[in-house]
Amino acid sequence: MQKLKPEDLGKISERMKGVVNLRDGAYCAKITVHMGTCGIAAGARKVMTALLAVVAEKGNKDVLVTTSGCAGLCGREPMATVELRGEAPVKYGNLDEAKIKEIFDQHVLGKKIVTEYAIGIGSERVS
Amino acid sequence: MVCAGTGCVSAKCFKIKEALERELKKHDLCEEVQIVMTGCNGFCAQGPIMVVQPEGIFYNMLKEEDIPHLVAEHFLKGRPVKKLMFTPPQEKAPVPLMKDIGFFSKQSLLILRNRGLIDPENIDEYIARNGYAAFSKAVTSMAPDEVIAEIRNSGLRGRGGAGFPTAKKWEHCRHAPGEPKYIICNADEGDPGCFQDRSILEGDPHSVIEGMLIGAYAIGSRHGYIYVRNEYPLAIKRFSTALSQARQYGLLGDDVLGTKFSFDISISRGAGAFVCGESSALMASIEGKIGEPRYKHIHATEKGLWDKPTVLNNVKTWASVPSIIRHGAEWFAKIGTETSKGTMVFSLVGKIKNTGLIEVPMGISLREIIYDIGEGLIGDRKFKAVQTGGPSGGCLPESCLDLPVDYESLTEAGSMMGSGGMIVLDEDNCMVDVARYFLDFLKGESCGKCTACRDGIEAMYECLNDICEGKGKEKDIEMLEELAGAVKDASLCGLGASAPNPVLSTIRYFRDEYDAHIRDKKCPAGVCKALIQYSIDAEKCTGCTLCAKKCPSEAITGERKAKHAIDLEKCIKCGVCREVCKFKAVVVN
Ligand SMILES: Cc1cc2nc3c(=O)[nH]c(=O)nc-3n(C[C@H](O)[C@H](O)[C@H](O)COP(=O)(O)O)c2cc1C
Ligand code: SF4
Ligand code: SF4
């Protein structure tokens, strides 16, 4: 791989916009499963596997499934964040395989938040 | 109101403001409509954002071109522009907004700025959120002394233990004679119940690497170590992945970013002893020797690892560095109190509703942490104490809840900041038993080099054990205090010096509980087995027989639908009956 020069950092940042920021990319939804030790211990791997299976089954190419670290509220793990293009991200907690499938059907495909499992809408404040 | 949080500023909200001013002026509306720039709304992904009050109409993802139309329609004709709206007000979402949820709203993310947002195994995502920009700025446009000055002016202090000013360490090491110079990241995290450092390494490993790069450049070091305990496999895996990605990009190795600066990091795995978190023991352990503290007549910044000048900082200290360089010392120094700047990450655990990892500005009160972020105690039980600072920290009572969380206040109150442990205790916790628990832990972790630490902690533990078993004597408290003094004074390292804290702070704030154990042979919280008896309240018992079925030593008898009784001879005081009874009929006295 090519070694970077200082100016390359900006180029990578530009190229990654579509992934980090939905509005700039080809994806219409992004699902992040929070996989820190706390999440994994609570069953995040199973949730991830179930999610990947349902995405593959429905054949959605414009849905981005990704992982991230602990979301902070360890007592509510496994957690996932669902973000649709043009809408605020929604955090879900206490998930299992059945719930993530339901969220995929209702929220990602049906555009309706599953209020029963949702913890909050929006993002955290970053100073 | 136009959001001017960092997220929206980067989404060009100031352009929106200018356009608004221009349009309002054109329509002569400046008197009626006021533009307010607000702090972050927590909808960063949707910026730039604008809220029109008093209607509370929320516009998101605005573009400069939208503004003339929006002003003409909404402000002139009073018709809100549907297609620019986020949630129409009548369809208010039934799910709370993140900024209205106490757990999230009182937090202030700086060290955890990327939490939940990036894939920690993809360096590009870190870079996309301005990663390595701070290091690039330092190495291309700042002299090492300027970097140190920036850290000094920010007021950053160590986040791993004693709160030593970070810039002072860096400066000593930079000017110390001897080559090579080493820097180390302390990720030993031996405190039971703590997971802040682990979580940072798992969730945002590059923030630690970037902090170390900046530190290495400032100090003049070419090689760094990270000391992680072996029990953290995921943290080690993610950090190794991050290291190899950084090497591939030329962010580690020779001639970093095409400059003359070279630096690399190795991982050193610790065996997981608490004392190995202490600086000289940690360095001994990296050198392959026994992890025992050494006598520090010369500071590690002069003679540390392999007797070379060395800087050791905690994970959170390193992870704070990039933000300081990127936003400037002044920005950082605005957060926190006079003596403690910036933010601190805590593992909030115990009898609290929201357990988790939190980041708060220094100076926030313990009450805000426990009641607003933690949302109070499980089952709305009564708060008794909060234990901070790890095993050798102290327990603070209700009367200390309004203390601002900073290094000095916590130390004065008999506890400490430590590395960010925070355990909430309720009325069912016996404070003598809690002190005994921590001393038991420390007794096992003392390396045994100093007599005072080895035998003194053991003696204090025995004394606490006697008190819990009802064998306490009148003079025991005085003896504990005397032993505490001796252990504090005659121990080589911080383990011994702080080990008496759990005992001293519980005596200071909960002396009545010690007295109850010693004089009345009672444990008010109903925890110490030797001092309690279980019995069944005849009024409340419905004769459901559940307790009799669950009792492991068949000590409970009674007919179905008749009052049950416990045979005290057979009772082993396991408390199972009390847990299973749905009618609260089993009582302790
Ligand atoms: C017994 C003992 C255990 C310690 N454990 C840790 C630890 O797990 N992590 C840590 O960062 N510092 C720990 N420290 C503090 C370190 O000795 C050292 O002060 C710290 O890593 C310096 O980093 P800082 O200036 O960034 O706080 C411990 C100290 C003692 C005495
Ligand atoms: S104070 Fe305790 S842990 Fe520290 S060096 Fe002495 S014996 Fe070892
Ligand atoms: S569980 Fe409670 S109510 Fe049922 S028999 Fe035992 S004491 Fe009585």
Topology:
The complex is a heterodimer of chains A (about 130) and B (about 600).
Chain A: H1 6-15, H2 17-20, E1 29-34, H3 37-42, H4 44-58, E2 63-68, E3 80-84, E4 90-92, H5 97-109, E5 118-121
Parallel strand pairs in A: 1-2
Antiparallel strand pairs in A: 1-3, 3-4, 4-5
Helix pairs in contact in A: 4-5
Chain B: E1 2-3, H1 6-10, H2 13-26, E2 37-38, E3 50-52, E4 57-59, H3 66-77, H4 102-105, H5 123-128, H6 133-141, H7 144-154, H8 166-175, E5 182-187, H9 196-203, H10 205-219, E6 223-229, H11 233-248, E7 264-270, H12 279-286, E8 310-314, H13 315-327, H14 329-333, E9 343-350, E10 356-361, H15 366-373, E11 383-388, E12 394-397, H16 407-412, E13 421-426, H17 431-445, H18 451-468, H19 476-489, H20 494-498, H21 501-509, H22 511-518, E14 534-536, H23 546-550, E15 556-557, E16 565-566, H24 576-580, E17 586-588
Helix pairs in contact in B: 2-3, 6-10, 6-13, 7-8, 7-10, 9-10, 9-11, 10-13, 17-18, 17-21, 18-19, 19-21
Bound molecules: flavin mononucleotide and iron/sulfur cluster (2 copies).
The site of one iron/sulfur cluster (SF4) has 14 residues of chain B, from helix 18 and helix 20.
